[in-house]
Amino acid sequence: MGLTRTAAPDAPAPGERVIALAGNPNVGKSTLFNALTGMRQHTGNWPGKTVELARGRCASEGRRYLLVDLPGTYSLLAHSPEEEVARDFLCFGGADAAVVVCDATALERNLNLVLQILELCPRTLVCVNLLDEAARKGLKVDLPLLADRLGVPVVGTSARDRTSQARLLSALDALMEAPEPQPRPVRYSAALESAAALLESVLAPLRGRGFGRWLALRLLEGDGELAERAQRALGICFSGLPGFTCALEAARGRLEEQHIAPEQIQELVTSALVRRGEELARAAVRRTRAEGEGRDRKLDRLLTSRRTGYPAMVALLALVLWLTLQGANYPSQLLSQLLFWVQDRLTELFTFLGAPDWLHGVLVLGAYRTLAWVVAVMLPPMAIFFPLFTLLEDAGYLPRVAYNLDRPFQRCHACGKQALTMCMGFGCNAAGVVGCRIIDSPRERLLAILTNSFVPCNGRFPTLIAVITMFFVGTAGGAVSSVLSAALLTGAVLLGVGATLGMTRLLSATLLRGIPSSFALELPPYRRPQIGKVLVRSLLDRTAFVLGRAAAVAAPAGAVLWILANVQPGGVSLLAHLTAFFDPLARVMGLDGVILVAFLLGWPANEIVIPIILMAYLSQGSLLEYESLAQLHTLLAANGWSWLTAACVLLFCLFHWPCSTTLLTVRRETGSWRWTALAAALPTALGVAACTLLCTFVHILGLN
User: Fold this and answer.
1) 630 within domain boundaries
2) Which of 265, 277, 179, 177 lies closest to 223 in space, CA to CA?
3) Residue 293 belongs to some domain of the structure
4) Which of 96, 349, 480, 701 has the most CB atoms lying inside 10 A of its own CB?
5) CA 594 to chain centroid
6) pLDDT at position 33
7) Residues 6+ apart with CB under 8 A from 40
8) 60 located within any domain
9) CATH code assigned at 246
10) Distance of alpha carbon 379 from alpha carbon 539, whole angstroms
């Protein structure tokens, strides 16, 4: 069986069949889609990662297909945006057939969706995936028996196995060539079947009997939104169909006779689907050996228990940060030397061309030097942090983090999925804000967006690390110093997590009151990460993306910064005027005017805060590089820095306004400048208050 892959525009080409790829979250559906189409569609090892439709082409020896990867969903009863997207495409998207991907290790739960799709789309292929995982757990699925009981073809696969992919395509070819299957329908209560039959006779001509029966049940439930969508998609008005109104009234009358209210219908339907799924799973799945204490269960006892789950999270966080600290130092130095060597060559070029000094200053000493700083400081830590983070994601650990933090977030009247978006924020707050799309509730999604910047992003780590090392660990270096630095940085991160929880609770009790929604989180099996794909995805998709956005704002900011430092009305630079203006406010916070202005001018990119401080203290007209932390410590101490100043800098670095990229992302995700302003004001207010209280407390006690 040959397999070809091509690009994927939305519209199918002539002779091409549209195949809807559906399934529960975390069943390997998107992995299978990527394997078949060759597209680099990101697949996270937790539920809800795929939130939009993705399209890709593949071809067997006989046919060409346009695969549509639907969002992972547990049901088509439309309780979430994912369910609505999947349902609407299956109903009205013009799919010629459907492939439903199931997890062989959790077949009973997956069959609920299979049975619902069979009511909508009889030409369906059931793909029982992860057979290798099932075998490892001592489970065997009787595929022929399952096919017989469902009335549709069933094929077994392992998504990462090319032989399985070819077998799936062969089964799909056979499905398209054969007459339309006749799935065995789920039987509901006699009263419900009788009522649905009255409407089915009127609706069946629209799309076939199965669709008519399914639509009849939804209309009896009183799903007005679906009714409107169906009428628009089908180009009809139900009330204009001959006999529709009489059939609907008669059907509702029969239900009233049996004391069945419209709001009870969905419960009856769900119960019948669950029972049928249980029956099928009992018949088709057998255990070949006792499960005993499997690897997954042993790991979960360690990583998700109340006694060891939180210490394990902290330990893993500290390990990731330590590896990032240790691994980034030397590459950062080499990269800095390379980029500033390029700067020297650019200077020689401008001199050779006879360019005016101001142009050289704006473009080279301003824009390029700032960009070089951002790249040299950001790239090495991100190139280490993001792969490590992605390894934890790919191995299946991040859903355990959400499981552990679900209870604290529930107490804050939020959703446990916020833990996942918070983790994304460690790399980039803007990416964390975008990740909030996985949260179904609009209220809880807004809570997650507004509080995402309370955890430090990759751009704040350089300042945090430098200050911690210089004033609280020492610059001598060594293994002990690196471990202590990682421990203190971990403490700063945990302080950010605590602030996230506290602010979430405050907002839930004031501006965004509400009851937390239910959160059913599937814990996927632990899987061996695919190192190659992890590196490609983390370095190209994440590192390059974040670095690119930071660089896009850093270069213009550098040009502006050079102008502020070199335009000198009255013999004093604009930068000096700014520092003098903000100095009184900064002193109240335990800072000085230079530090506060550095944070203000570092709004486009937090990485340039320390260089701006150096430039202001030394009265230079461009950003400076420092050769060692020991030299930097000497300079800062000479300009009045104490341990209290350093502590206040740490607090303000942890809690201040998000960067420009994050705020623009908040504006795009919320569609409101009001919420964007609040997202900036909340961490800033906390940072100002924390610094002021600490400074006041220390001065009262005479500790500084």
Assistant:
1) yes
2) 265
3) no
4) 96
5) 36
6) 87
7) 34, 536, 537, 541
8) yes
9) 1.10.287
10) 10
483 and 362 within one domain: yes
Q: Are strands 285-287 and 17-23 parallel, antiparallel or unpaired?
A: unpaired
CB 679 within 8 A of CB 663: yes
Place of tokens 């203290």: 617
Distance CA 601, CA 556 (A): 12
Measured over all CA atoms, what is the biggest interatomic distance in the chain, rounded to whole angstroms? 94
The DSSP call for residue 269 is H
Looking at the fold, whether 236 and 361 belong to one and the same domain comes out as no
- Whether 355 and 477 map to the same domain: the answer is yes
- Output phi, psi for 187, to 5 deg: -95, 125
Same domain, 18 and 132: yes
- The DSSP-derived string for 77-146 is S-SSHHHHHHHHHHHHS--SEEEEEEEGGGHHHHHHHHHHHHHH-SSEEEEEE-HHHHHHTTEEE-HHHH
DSSP string computed for 510-550? TTT--PPPP-----PPP----HHHHHHIIIIIIIHHHHHHH
Give the pLDDT confidence of 234-270 residue by residue, as tens digits: 778 887 788 888 888 888 888 888 888 887 888 888 8
Residue range(s) defining the domain that contains residue 617 = 309-701
Give the position of tokens 């593949």.
Answer: 58
Tell me, what DSSP letter sits at residue 199?
A: H
What distance in Å separates the CA atoms of residue 215 and residue 196, rounded to the nearest whole number? 9
Residues comprising the chain, all counted = 704
CA torsion 290-296-300-303 (nearest 10°) is 150
Q: Which residues have CB under 8 Å from 205's CB, separation 6+?
A: 212
pLDDT of residue 5: 37
- Residues 609-629: pLDDT tens digits? 887 887 778 766 555 555 567
All residue ranges of the chain with pLDDT < 50 are 1-9, 40-51, 292-293
pLDDT at residue number 212? 79
Distance CA(178)–CA(201), nearest Å, equals 26
Domain boundary residue among 148, 177, 206?
A: 177
Nearest Cα neighbor of 426 from 466, 398, 445, 407 is 398
185 in a domain, yes or no? no
38 vs 57: CA distance, rounded Å: 9
Strand blocks (E) in 97-253 = 97-103, 124-129, 139-141, 154-156
Give the per-residue pLDDT at 79.
61
Of 370, 375, 387, the C-alpha closest to 615 is 370
CB atoms within 10 A of CB 356: 9
pLDDT of 644: 94
Domain boundary among 146, 177, 208: 177
Residue 498, CA distances (Å) to 426, 493, 666 in order: 14, 9, 22
Tell whether 245 and 317 lie within a shared domain.
no
With CA atoms as reference, report the closest residue to 315 among 486, 531, 192, 145: 486
- The answer on 244 and 322 residing in a single domain is no
In angstroms, the CA 498 to CA 480 distance is 27
d(CA 172, CA 178): 10
Quick one: 490 and 558 in the same domain?
A: yes
In this predicted structure, what is the pLDDT of residue 521? 62
Q: Are 104 and 78 in contact (CB under 8 A)?
A: no
E strands of 50-120, at which residues? 54-59, 64-69, 97-103
Structural domains counted in the chain: 3
How many CB atoms within 10 Å of residue 657?
A: 19
Whether residue 170 is found in the same domain as residue 196: no
Give the residue among 384, 392, 449, 388 at the shortest CA–CA distance from 422: 449
- Global confidence as pTM: 0.69
CATH number at residue 69: 3.40.50.300
Residue 151 is encoded by which pair of tokens? 């009335």
**Distance in angstroms (rounded) separating the CA atoms of residues 644 and 663:** 30
- pLDDT recorded at residue 6: 37
